Amino acid sequence: MIRPAGFRGAAFGDATDGNGRDDADAREHICAELGIPSEWASVRQVHGRVIHRVDGPGLAGDGDGLITNCFGVPLAIATADCVPIIIEGDESVAVIHAGWRGVAAGVIEAGRSAMAATGDTARRAAIGPSIGPCCYEVGDEVISAIGGPASTTTHGTRSVDLWAAAEAQLAGLVVWRADRCTFTDTAFWSYRRDGTSNRQVAVAWVPER
User: Fold this and answer.
1) Is residue 90 part of a domain?
2) Whole-structure pTM value
3) How do residues 88-99 score in pLDDT, each as one tens digit?
4) Label partner for 116 (CA 20 to 30 A): which of 3, 69, 94, 193?
């Protein structure tokens, strides 16, 4: 698991951690490593902007993010090229699944608004491994929907920089970025590279004090 520096309860998985979304043994291993409960809160990801506020584990429904201010309730989303984002506040934490459709729909702003609605203040955000501008070949309609920034892949075609787009929507926060591309780095599952059904997980929680 990748633990971003300065975060109290945040971790991004890779392929060596197994498929924490679907494999109970992999989840138990992840939880043992992080010292958190094995029952997580999750969502049925739909590439939208809905953020669910939860106070316990289980499936919250359709959506692309979760927020809690309850101690010891792990929140999890799963990715294999989309951008996983964790936002920490003083008393709460949110985890967000941000593909290009979610970024265009405003899922990151929805996560920030959900934290503000709890009365908390967002302080820092972590952008985990996902497909990078080196490899994320898209059409102009995707670049237009996100609002850029446009980039170029290593083989000379049009791409978009989702990392920079996400960071722009996290303005005002201290932002940590993994800057690791799931397509080129075989330490991660990548749907675009392999068509895999496996997913790495991003997990966030408010630790006991």
Assistant:
1) yes
2) 0.95
3) 999 999 999 999
4) 3
